[in-house]
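User: Okay, second chain of the day. Same drill as before: sequence in, structure tokens out.
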Amino acid sequence: MPVVLPKDAESDWLAADPDTRKELCQPYPKDDLDAYEISTRVNNPGNDDPRVIEPLDHEQSGLGEFSSG
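Assistant: Same drill. Structure tokens below.
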């Protein structure tokens, strides 16, 4: 599972003991993160242009599982 940290916590994370790292693992604020479906073109490294991360034209279902509460 990835951990998303504030920039000012990066060095703390790298130097921390397991208990401190556990304290740094907090739910990410859901109002600060957007999720959207992108093209499968992103799977090919030969497609190196900004279009690979443009949102697709339809709504993606199941994004509720990414909310923090």
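The CA atoms of residues 37 and 58 lie 8 Å apart.

User: Thanks, on to the next one.
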